[in-house]
Amino acid sequence: MNRNRKRSGFALLLTTLMLVAAALSGCSGGKSAGDVTSGGDSSGGGDKGGTVTITHYTIDSEDRTFVEKLIPDFEAKHPNIKVKVEKAPYEQFDSKLQTLIAGGKSPDVTSHYGSGGFAEYYNKDMLLDLTDIIQEDGFKAADYGIPDNLMNIYKVKERTYGIPVNMYVTLMLYNKDMFDAAKVPYPPSDYEDKSWTFDNMVEDAKKLTVISDDIAKTQYGVDFTWAERDNRPLYFGAEPYSEDTWTNGGVPSATHFDSPEVIAAYNKLFGLIFKEKVSPTTEWSQSVAGQNGDPFVAGKIGMSVSGSWSLAGANDFPFKIGVAAVPWGGNDKVRSTLYVDPLMILKGSKHPKEAFEWIKYLVTADVQEKSIELSGGNPPVNTQAAEAYYKHFEGVDPQDIKNVYEGAVKYGFESYNHLITNYSQINDMFINEMQPIESGHKTVEEVMPTIQKKLQEIIKR
Amino acid sequence: MSTLPAAGPQANNAVPKRRRSADPVGIVSFIALVVTTFLMLLPLFFMVSTSLKSKKEMLKFPPTFLPESWQWSNYKEIFETLSFGTMYMNSLIIGILTVVGTLLSSALAAYGFARYRGKGSSTWFLLMLSTMMLPYPAIMIPQFILFSKLNWIDTFLPLIVPAFFGSAYNIFLLRQFFSTLPDELFDAGRIDGCSEFRMWRQIALPLSGPALATVAIFAFIYSWNDLLTPVLYLSSTEKLTLPVGMASLTSSRFRIPPWHLLMVASVLAMLPIVTLFAVAQKRFVEGIVLTGIK
Amino acid sequence: MYLFISPWLIGFLVFALYPLLSSLYYSFTDYDIIHPPQFIGLANYAEMFGNDLFWKSVTVTLRYTLISVPIQLLLALGFALLLNQRIPLRGFFRTAMYFPSMVSGVAMSLLWYWIFNPQIGLFNYMLSWFGIRGPAWLMNPDTALYALMIMSFWTAGSGMILFLAGLQGVPASLVEAAKLDGAGRFKIFLHVTLPMISPVLLFQLIMGMIDSFQVFTQAFVMTQGGPNYSTWFYVYNLYTSAFKEYRAGYSSALAWVLLVVVMLFTALVMKLSNRYVHYEGGKR
Predict the structure, then answer these.
(1) A305 vs A177, A297, A309, C94, CA distance in Å?
(2) Which of A455, B17, C154, C194 is the most buried (most CB within 10 A)?
(3) C110: closest CA among B46, B268, A297, B41?
(4) Contact residues on chain B for A215, CB-CB shorter than 8 A
(5) Which CATH entry fits the domain spanning A170-338+406-460: 3.40.190.10, 3.90.440.10, 1.10.1200.120, 3.90.226.10?
C-alpha cells in the first residue's frame, strides 16, 4: 500500500502545490493590501511627482525616536522629501542594519548607535564620502555652530564622512547629600583650578568611603569609569595606540599595551579599588545597580566620573547632585573623552542629496534646541543651542554645566570607541581579559602582554 | 499490545481515587509540590510587586519586597508611554493566526511522518529536523532577502505565513504522539472504508487533544514572545508588536530604564498566555475522549 | 504520505531550502555583507579549527548541554508524574509550574539578573537561611555558566506539560492490569508508564539538545559571553562573527559545522533509541 500511495503521491503534490499557491496569493492580496503599498514606495524610492523617501535608521528608544516628531515640520519645508524612521532596539541594531544592507534596503541616514563605531563603518566601506555634497551644497560648519575640531573628528584623509549632531563629554557627578554629611567641600567645575588633581580626588574620596559588613551602609568615594577600558591610560598621559591611528581611519600601526607607562596607568587606576579602597569592584557595582546600571544612581557613590548622559536621568535621583570637572591626572592635553555622534549617509543611499538636507535640518540651531526638550536632554553639537542645554537640568547650576562642557571640549579627545577599527571585538576582548584583574585574581603585569598579543591579532584581521 | 485500550475520561489517573487520603506518597508529593511551586512563583511575585512601585522607589537600595506606596497608575502610564493597545492587538492577531496555521499544517505533516515509515520518509524527516539545527543568525539574511523579494517587508506576512507550512518542532512533537496511537485503530478504520484524510480527522486528531493543546500553547507563546523577527521585518509604528515595544523601554544606552513600566508590560503580556493555558489545562484534565470509536 | 506532508514540503522548498543553501554557499566565501561574497574554498573551515574562541565556545556549549539537558528532563518528568496523580489543587499546581515559561524573554533575563545579584538577590538571600554564603553567580567566571543552567530549570514547566500530555495517553487499563499482577508503583512506572511515554522522552531529549546547542539569548542579554569568556556559547560566537565582525562567510561556516554535528548527534540518538522507544504502531 505504501507503493500505491507513492505513485499517486506526485500528482497529489502538484495539485496541492497549485492549491496552496492560489491560497497564498489570495491571502497576501487580502490581508495586506494597505501594507504592501507603504512598504513599496520606500524601497522603490518612488518618483511620484518628484517626491523621494529617505530612511533614518536609529535606536528604538525615546531619546532617539523623537526625530519622528520633527518630520512634519521638515516635510512642510521640503515638500519633495518624505522621511521614514526605521528603528531597532539597541541589542538588535547591528544585525538589523546589516540585514537591511544585505537585503538591498539600506537606510539613508544613521549614526554609530550599535556596538561598532565610526571607524568600523568607514573601514567596512559602508559610508558615503560627503565632501563633494558639502562642496556643492555650500554647507559651512560655522553656520551651524559646529566647531572645526568637532568636524575634523569624522574626516579621514581630508574627506568628510559624518556631520556631528550630539556631543557628550566626560564629567564628574557628585552626590551633594553625601558631601554634606561628610563635611567635604564640593569639587570645582573649573578646569583651570590647579588644585583639582587625581590625588586630591583620592583624598576626598577616602573621607566619603564607608566600608561596612552591612551592604546598605557601604558607600564608596569615587567610581572612576573614565571612557572604555583601553582608553583609560590616556587619562594619565600614556598613549597605547600609535599616532597614525587618528588620521588613517583607525588602523593602528603599533600598540603599546605592554609598555611600562600603560601598565603604570592601569595600576594607578586599579589602585583605587585594591590599594586606596575608595572605589567599588565591578561585582559590587553590578550588585548594587544591576546590569549596566550605575551605582551612583543608587546613592552609594560620592563622585562618579562618566559620560554626560548620566545627567539625563538626574531629575529622578533621590538625592541632590552637582557637576564638577574631571581632575587633572598627569595629562596636560586630555582630561575628558568626547562622544560626538555624527550623522552619516550610507553608501547604499539612493538619495544622498535629500538625505543631506535632512541632516542639515537636524543640526540647525532651532531644531537642535527643540531636540533637547523632545529627547529629554540630548546635548546639542550646535553651540548656539548649548545655552538651552545647560539650563535643562533642574537643581544643577547651569554655570557648572557650562564650565564643564567648555573645559571638556578644550581638554577633550574623541573616545577611542568611535575611532578604532574592529572596536567591538577590541572592547569584548578587554572586558573579558581584564575581568581577572577586576576581581583581584591577576595582576596588571600578568594580563597586559596577553592583551597586547590578542589586540594585534584583532587589528590584523 | 494486542488489546485495544479502554481509554476513557478516567484514563489519566495512575492513582485511583479511593486511596487518596491515606496515601503517604500522595502527602510527600503534595509537600514537594508546595515547595517547588513556592520557588517557581517567588520571582513572579517580585515581578508583580515591582510593577506597582514608583520610579523613585525602583532606585532604592536595598530593594523593597512590597511597594511602599501602591502605584496603580503605572498600569495607566504604560498606555501613555507605548502605543500599548495597538501592539497588543497586533501581537494577538499574529499569535492567533500562527496557532491556526501551525495546528493545521503540523498535524497534517506529522500524521504523514508518523503513519508511513518507508525509505524516503526518514530522509524527509531528517531534512525537516535539519531546518531546526541551523541557528537563526545564519539564515537571517538569506531569509530577509527572500521575503523582501516577495515584497513582504513591513507586513505581518513573514511572521504568519511560514506557520501555515508547518514548523519542524511541532511536526516532530505531534509525530511522536501520533506514533503512540495503536495501529489497530487505523486498521479498523480502513476496514470501515475510511479515507486516510478521514482517519486523520476522525481518529488521530480526537485522540491527540492534549498534544494539540500543547502545540497550540507552544506556538502561541513562541509567536507572542518573538522579538527578532518583528524587529527585522516591521518598521511602521502602528505595526509593531508587544516584545518590540517592551524592548524599546530598555534599549537606551543612556537612560535608566523605567523598570516599573517594563514589569507592568510583562505582567500584562502574560495575561493571554495564562488564559490560554487555563483553557487548555482543562483539556488535560478531561483526558482523551474517545468518541464513536469503541 | 506526500499529500499529508505537502504543506510542510512546499514551505520547506520555499522558505527553508533557499536560506539553507545560501548559507552553505556563504560558508565557502569571504562575505562582509556590504561587498559581494568571494569564493575562498575551505579557508573559513580551516581557520575555525585554529581559533581559540571557537574551541572555547565548543567547550562551554558542550558542558552546558551535558549537564543541563538531563537535569531539565528529569525535573520535567518528575513534575509531570507528581501532577498526574489525584492531588488537591492539581490545576493550580500545573498552572504555577508552567507560569515561568510564560514570561517573555526580556522580562525573564531582567528578573534573573536580579535574582542572581550576589548581595541583594533572592538566590543568595535564600542560601543564607541555610548559612551558605552564595557566590557572585553571573559575575564570577566559575559560576556564571551554572547560573544560566539554574535559570533554565525554571522553565522546566514547558517540558512538564509535554510529559503530562504523554501521560494522558497511558491507558488506565494497562496500569490496572499491572497492579492486579502485583506490580509496585516503581515497577509500573518502569515497565508500563516509561515505555508508553518513551516517544515523548525521545522528542524532549532531541529538542533539548538542539536547543541547548543553540543557546544564545541568555549569553547575549545577560552576560555578553563573559565574565572572562565563561559563557561564550557557540551561537554567541557565531553571532559575534557575523554581526560584530562583519564576517557572514565565517559565521555561515560555523553554522554548518553546528548543523552537521547536531545532525550526527540526533541520528545517533535516534538509532540508539530504536531499541528502547516504544511505538504503538511499530511497523519498523
Answers:
(1) 17, 12, 11, 50
(2) A455
(3) B46
(4) 62
(5) 3.40.190.10
CATH classification of A52-168+340-399, choosing from 3.40.250.10, 3.40.190.10, 3.50.50.60, 2.40.37.10? 3.40.190.10
Q: Cβ–Cβ of A89/B161 closer than 8 Å? A: no
Q: Which chains sit next to B, with 3 or more Cβ pairs under 8 A?
A: A, C
Return contacts of C196-199, CB within 8 angstroms, 24+ apart: C196/B180, C196/C166, C196/C169, C196/C170, C196/C278, C197/C163, C197/C166, C197/C167, C197/C169, C197/C170, C198/C273, C198/C276, C198/C277, C198/C278, C199/B176, C199/B177, C199/B179, C199/B180, C199/C166, C199/C277, C199/C278, C199/C279
ipTM of the complex: 0.87
Residue B4 lies in a domain: no
**What is the rounded radius of gyration, in angstroms, for the C-alpha atoms of chain B?**
24
pTM: 0.88
How do beta strands A159-160 and C38-39 pair? Answer: unpaired
Q: How far is C94 from chain A (nearest CA, A)?
A: 32
- Asked if A16 and C7 come within 8 Å (Cβ–Cβ), the reply is yes
Convert the pLDDT of each residue in C28-81 to its tens digit: 999 988 888 999 999 999 999 989 899 999 999 999 999 999 999 999 999 999
C-alpha span between A108 and A57 (Å, rounded): 8
Contact B155 A61 (CB under 8 A): no
pLDDT, tens digit, 9 for 90 and up, residues C101-160: 888 877 888 788 888 888 778 888 888 888 888 888 988 899 999 999 999 999 888 899
